[in-house]
Records
---
Amino acid sequence: MAKDIFYTALDIGTSKVATVVAQVGPDGELKIVGTGLVPSQGVVKGQIVNVAEAQEAVQASLNEAQRYMGYRIPWTYVSIAGASTACFNTTGVIHADTNGDPITGENVEQLVQSSYPQIPEDKQILHVMPVNYVVDGYRGVRSPLGLHAGRVEVESHVVMADRDAIRQTLHAVEDCNVPVRDVVLSSLASAEATLFQDEKEMGVVLADIGAGTTDLAIFKDGSLWFDTSIPVGGNQLTRDLSVALGMPYYFAEDLKDKWGHASPDIEQAGEEVLLPSFQGQSRRLIRRSTLCKPLIDRLQETLGLIMLRAQQAGLRRLPPGGVVLTGGTSRIPGFQQMATETLACPVRVAAPVGIRGFSPEHNQNAFSTVIGLLLWGIKHQNRSGVFNKSRDQYGPSRGSNAFFQRIKKAVKVK
Ligand SMILES: Nc1ncnc2c1ncn2[C@@H]1O[C@H](COP(=O)(O)OP(=O)(O)OP(=O)(O)O)[C@@H](O)[C@H]1O
Ligand SMILES: [Mg+2]
């Protein structure tokens, strides 16, 4: 009888560290069996700036998730923020020379390898993803596998990361005695949990608006085409509110959560909010629209920056699949309406889909990265990042199924 398999994903965000353990049942169904959610520390705008502090938060998150399972997490996937990555597109070519035989998986592998670029010393390649193929001059071929051809070209999307950022991420996790199975760009992970294939085909802009950053992933013709990170997120909204109301940051965070609204219609509602007292000041009533004004301004600016980055990437207009918003900040009520009016395109606010056992009281949109990381891991289980002990070398490779089989054995349960 087929046994259950467990997967773990870990997202080190600016505001929280989230661990999710999922069980893939004998019939392939996915169920969350453990979660660990703790406040983040040592992370600024998505980047680890204090490894010891980050490692403490990672350990607490892993401990919480492990409590549910009754045994140690054997390995994990981990995300890396777009703030420390850069992307570009490359091409590769092979002359298949197959003597009349169809193109094999080995030929395709060789082709993709030929599109690996030379990169600076302080960078490491995280992902090389084929976007499309040109087979004997015919463009737009999705896969050359099985075709009879001579010259085959590939256009690949390459994501590279700062070597130091990868090393710090590995330290923070592996010092908790949990080996990292692979490191994945966080916006790519979020896309896995939130985007439909149709949207990717039509072209879509995904914006994961977290606490410290807004991570963008733009898909075209079904593939990731551009990704970047904007250093703006929910922390700025809270800070703006704290300044506008003359209140400490933690009061502002609470008020944003309870009363924040992004729809311009809030002006008409005429509601009032009683502000908490602090430092002996008396409580005061303000209009809810006054409270929302700085939030609306910052969100408008964020949408403007998303448009600008999409244009800088080479899009003349937003794609037919529109814009999908996720991440904790996308939960603010009225945001979908505001974004639709501002961007003048279809806008969807998305939480991760298709997972059983994921508690609805969680701020689900904030979990798109960690859930997507799980899904990505399951889909790409034959790929393994290669790490050496000193964590100096990391590069994507196609790992053998043997590794996966070993893991499978290690996590089998009765
Ligand atoms: N209902 C809500 N209204 C407004 N903001 C919200 C709401 N719920 C959560 N947030 C904001 O979402 C942010 C946290 O989102 P998320 O957990 O996605 O960030 P993160 O992954 O820790 O950070 P990052 O991805 O930027 O590194 C916080 O700024 C929080 O204030
Ligand atoms: Mg995040």
---
Amino acid sequence: MKGKVALVTGANGGLGTYVTQALLDAGATVVGLSRKIQQSEFNSPNFTALSAEISSADGAKTAADILVSRFGGLDILVHTVGGFAGGQSISETEDATFQRMFDVNLYSTFYLLRAALPVMRKTGNGRIVAIGSRAALEPGAGVGAYSASKAAMVSLIRTVAQENKDAGITANVILPGTMDTPANRKFMANADFSKWVRPAAVASLIGWLVSDAGKDVNGAVIPVYGSDV
Ligand SMILES: NC(=O)c1ccc[n+]([C@@H]2O[C@H](COP(=O)([O-])OP(=O)(O)OC[C@H]3O[C@@H](n4cnc5c(N)ncnc54)[C@H](OP(=O)(O)O)[C@@H]3O)[C@@H](O)[C@H]2O)c1
């Protein structure tokens, strides 16, 4: 991936850390975005930290503008930013919770894609991978706001795949089951971690999807559920 410019959103999150490292290891120039991220978090001359809030249209547009001015374009976009809320039935869900889920899971995706797609179309090729959730297809009790926001995000990515196939751009979405992240280990300390999906496995799949080998996969919705199928 030498010469490719990649943007990883949520670059220092549980999954994003693995994705960023995998793309750096593959030789890409990686811009790692989160609200709070520092240059020292990845030890590579090919890494650039970019602090931005992408649940706002302005934040996403500014991030895309910085990419163009500093790197001249964008080849790969891996969007791992997301958030979770659970424990409330729909009849109990507060406006603020519903809004927060849609802001972080759906609006961030919309604002980012709207800002990045013109840049990618100019580049003449592109790879987009977004992270949904198993709950997008299999909603369960108590996670309605989260599931609905991820389901809408899946729809958005599939639309983007259709609208940009003429420009050599692919857009796919991965639906992980519960991943083995430090945050999940903390909040579900008694769970059987061995059943969880390894973030490194998801990062490896992403690495393939964004490589030349993945160019024929477009508009796919890919479940990664580990042993809990
Ligand atoms: N963990 C799981 O078991 C699981 C299961 C299924 C699906 N997923 C999905 O997989 C993705 C990655 O999950 P994860 O566990 O790695 O999440 P995570 O550890 O919470 O990481 C989220 C990352 O996004 C950044 N972020 C959050 N809101 C942002 C915003 N508005 N603007 C810019 N950056 C923002 C966070 O950093 P800052 O807070 O510094 O901004 C962090 O780097 C998410 O989309 C999640 O919904 C996770």
